[in-house]
Amino acid sequence: MDEPLRVGLVGAGPWAHNVHAPGLADHPATRLSAVFARREEAARELAKPYDAEVCASLDELLGQVDAVAFAVPPATQAELAAEAAKAGKHVILEKPIAADVAGAERLADAVAGAGVASLVMLTLRYATSTRDWLAGLAAAGGWRGGGVRWLSGALLDGPYAASSWRQEDGGTLADVGPHAFDLLDAALGTIERVSSAHRGPDDLWHVVFEHEGGALSSATLSLRLPLRPAVVECAVYGEHGYRTLGRRDGVAAQSYTAMLDDFAALADTGTTSHPCDVTRGLHIQRLLESTRSLAR
């Protein structure tokens, strides 16, 4: 690229501070140009170290950037990202991409209609270790089943425990469900059906999936169990044995850099299709809604 992408950041919470802002500022293909947040004081605090402009509205931000990264609750993201796409801006989306399927569909339609690039921040998928693991699974084939265990106390304490959408609206399923469901889908083939789902005490979820090709998998998830260290593991099994993938500390920043590599390449070449684009986000949104419906 001749010039770095001018990227605006919407949101000024802990995730924006810890991952989005430094990642956009440090990457050679992007520049953090502008910040917009509900609280102007928070936007100013975030923007100051990077000499980014502080905008009073989304429209003002859209007039200054080529792309927009979102670090806001799902319902807000679905509305604002659709506006950004319609304005011709490439978008970096958080998971889940919306609060419900209807919102996700409207966002996906806006992105497709505008012909802009989109990527969903499914953090683990951009890590080199994950990409190598998935490539090895695809080359071997013959996998019959698998599962994800994601158990921690992240919503009991820590930098993201105060997040209102996580505590009040989404909880474990909305926060780490997209990561877990996406990994199983990528490892074992498209999830065609959520066959059972149960939510127990401590927001503990047990979900069973049926995959295209006949594989079965399960996800056991909670962010309200006081486990130290947290348990994060994806495993598959079949005719070539048993293979696992864990999560390493520091993966968020590394994955964000890798995601920006892909994002800049999409924008530079005019490509809009990617394994983690908005259509992937819509697929995951539908799985989340099916899971919630079965657990009622």
TrEMBL record:
Ranges where the GFO/IDH/MocA-like oxidoreductase domain occurs: 161-241
| Molecular function via GO | nucleotide binding; oxidoreductase activity
Domain of life of the organism in this record?
A: Bacteria
Positions of the Gfo/Idh/MocA-like oxidoreductase N-terminal domain: 5-117
Keywords, comma-separated and alphabetical = Oxidoreductase
User: What PANTHER family does UniProt report for this protein, alphabetically?
Assistant: BCDNA.GH03377 (PTHR43818:SF11)
From the Swiss-Prot or TrEMBL record, give the protein name.
Putative dehydrogenase
Q: What species does this protein belong to?
A: Amycolatopsis endophytica
Give the taxonomic lineage as stored in the record. Answer: Bacteria, Bacillati, Actinomycetota, Actinomycetes, Pseudonocardiales
